[in-house]
Structures are given as C-alpha cells and as structure tokens.
Amino acid sequence: MNTGDVDSYLRDGCGRCEHYQKPSCKVHLWTSVLEALREIARSTGLDEEMKWGSPCYTLGGKNVVMIGAFKERCVLSFFKGAALVDESGALTAAGPNSRIARWLEFRSHDEVLARRSLARGFIEQAIALERAGVKVAKRAEAEPVPIELAQRLEVDSDLRRAFEALTPGRRRSHLIHITGAKQSETRARRVERCATSILAGRGFNER
Q1: Strands 102-106 and 74-78: what pairing?
Q2: What is the pLDDT of residues 3-56, one digit of tens each?
Q3: Are residues 109 and 172 in the same domain?
Q4: How far apart are the first and last CA of the chain?
Q5: Burial grade of 29 (CB within 10 A; 0-12, 13-18, 19 or more)
Q6: pLDDT tier at 207 (50, 70, 90 boundaries)?
Q7: Judgement on whether residues 119 and 30 belong to the same structural domain of the protein
C-alpha cells in the first residue's frame, strides 16, 4: 500500500494490487480528474494526507473526505455523507452495505469542472459538520454472526479474543465476507481464510 504522499499516489498508484507502479494502474486512467479533485479539496483548507493508499483530507486529525479511483469512475467519498443535505440527489451510497459514507461520482475532467461548485459545497458542509462535532447515528442492528464462525470462536479462545478486539468496522468486514456465501461449506472455508487476518488484527480487505 502506498504510504507516501499524494504526489507519489498520482505517480505510482495506490499500491493495493499488483498494478502498483505500472501503467496499468487504474489511478493512471484518471490523472486529470484526480488532479482536479485534489485541487478542489485543497482549496477548502483541509489537511492533505495519505490513508489506506488514497488521498484523505482531514480537519484537526478527523477524516472529512477522501478521493478514490476505480475502473469506471472517480469519487469524493464523504465520511459523514449520510448527514449532508443533498437536495440535488447527487450523492450515492458507497456500497450496498454502506451505513454512513456517501460518494459524489465523476467520469471525466469536464464533469469535475461542471460540478466544481457542487463538490466544494458538499466539502464545506462536511467541514461544518466536523467543526460542530456532529455524530452520525449508525443502525442499531448488528451484523449476525454466521453459525460457522460462531462454532469456530467457541472452540478457539485465541481467535475469539482477537475477533472481539477488532474494531466494529473490521469485524463487520469479515462478517459480510463470510455471510456472502450461500453454502455452509463455503462459509466454513471463508472462516478459515479469515482466521489469519483476525488473529493479526486486520479487517478482511486489509493486507
């Protein structure tokens, strides 16, 4: 994973796959779009950092917005997006299991230029929320623990302690991966594959 600065991200990529520092890296598909989004984010006075291999913009150490590059689009990802006023309906959920984060998507440099005011407005809203200390309520219900994982945790105290010590987000990433399998045998195999990461204190998508 790229832990350098945003210049190295634009030059080399995020470092989360085998395309790191190669022309095939998806970051290189969107150079002009990413540079334009970076300029907008920096113009708001937020601090620029690298987190999870991507540009992240923070206020007093608190995450406000990230820039992400995918094969078919780039996004501004708002950590408290569910609390933003979105009269235009431009924001989308970051994924089917997303609770709070919201994306503003871009597919061309021209689209960034056309939506510059909209993007900056959302960032300024997000900054105001952070300054006000607004907390976004999460859904009360917890992800169910699949029986295959529950059985494994019952007989392996080290794994159980490691699982309980994970952050809620890391626990949830494993639960989503395991329960995504329809067959019990497949879920059991996924439990075994997840065990190494759980013991290492990592989420499913972390190396």
Answers
A1: antiparallel
A2: 899 999 999 998 878 888 999 999 999 999 999 999 999 999 999 999 989 999
A3: no
A4: 8
A5: middle
A6: low
A7: yes
Task: Write down the pTM of the prediction.
Answer: 0.69
Whether 72 and 162 share a structural domain: no
Are the C-beta atoms of 198 and 162 separated by less than 8 Å?
yes
Query: Which residues form the domain of 168?
Result: 147-199
Q: Give dist(CA 152, CA 99) in Å, integer.
A: 28
Are 65 and 41 contacting, i.e. CB atoms less than 8 angstroms apart? yes
Torsion sign across C-alpha atoms 154, 155, 156, 157: positive
In 3D, which of 139, 147, 140, 131 has the Cα closest to residue 181? 147
Are 125 and 169 in a shared domain?
A: no
Decide if 139 is inside a domain.
Answer: no
Beta bridge partners of 47: 58
